[in-house]
Amino acid sequence: MRASDRSRERDRDSEKHIDRYKEIQLRQLSTFCVAAKEGNFTKAARTLGLSAPTVWQQVRALEQRLKTTLMRRRGRNVVLTDDGRLLLELVQPHVSGLESLESLFAARQRMLPPELTVAAIPYLASTHLIEPVRRFADEHETARLTLRVLVWFQEVIRQVEQGQAELGVIFVDRGEARSPQLEYEFLRDLPLSLLTPKRHPLTRKRSISLKDIIEYPLIVPPEGAFARRTLDQLLSRGDLNQQARIVMETPLAEVIRHYVAAGMGVALLHVDEEPAKSAVYRRPLEGWDEGISISLVTRRGAHAAEPVEVFQRLLRDYFGVRQEDSKESGNSLTT
């Protein structure tokens, strides 16, 4: 850029700065009101935490915009002109109202019912969140709780990252990278479990291998799900991909359970105990070391309102963890 072009650009920037000062701004009106009350630019500057020249400049900008004189010097003090008194009469109520806006807003905000949005994957929403949600509703009868059930844990991550949900409850593979935007709080480990119909031949075996399992049709989650990734890794490790027979694929653990109970096949899932009257037999695969964790995620640095803190406490109580033991180390998940 040539020197003449840079000079013209600086002139344009200077003109823009002058034009901005010519606009009537709230801080100019507020400064004018304080100067009128104090009768002195230095005292007004002390009240406002500004310099005396800045106070004078803002009052002068108002005068230029209104094309009149609002204050005249009298020794070290300033007095209002007739136009100055007229302007003060017009703007003082509005400026005072705006200055009290913050406290008024906070007072009215306290009158609104507290809101909380929790995002969770279907299995956790339909099992582990029932008790914390019920207790939250009992403790906060006026609160409005939104439970967003999202099939993929990546959707839960995204909702919390973008501030659309204050809390997320998801599965986490401890070997995966974590989102730097989120805080992760460990709640519980979940083992990999085999689901079969009751009285299935596998329920009578003392020890079970992957070869035993793939003798039967498999009902699996879609690719990308934690349990599917685990199954694929196990099959590849044992060179058993060609022998496995997948008869059904669905992302919902509850649907998988129903079809296992109906005798369509067996399944490998990260789940807890089965209900007492369930037609499905659950067998944790001890020693397989393929478990995952249930974790609570929140946005890093976000203000935790009271409903958020209450729900966090209820989750910790339900899972039996202490806050000081629940923080996960390392950076937090984005897959």
Automatic annotation (TrEMBL):
Residues covered by the HTH lysR-type domain: 24-81
Matching Pfam families: HTH_1, LysR_substrate
InterPro entries, A to Z: LysR_HTH_N, LysR_subst-bd, WH-like_DNA-bd_sf, WH_DNA-bd_sf
Domain of life the protein comes from: Bacteria
Keywords, ordered alphabetically: DNA-binding, Transcription, Transcription regulation
GO MF term (any one): DNA-binding transcription factor activity
Matching PROSITE patterns: HTH_LYSR
PANTHER family: HTH-TYPE TRANSCRIPTIONAL REGULATOR, LYSR FAMILY TRANSCRIPTIONAL REGULATOR
Family: Belongs to the LysR transcriptional regulatory family.
Protein name: HTH-type transcriptional activator CmpR
Gene it is expressed from: cmpR_1
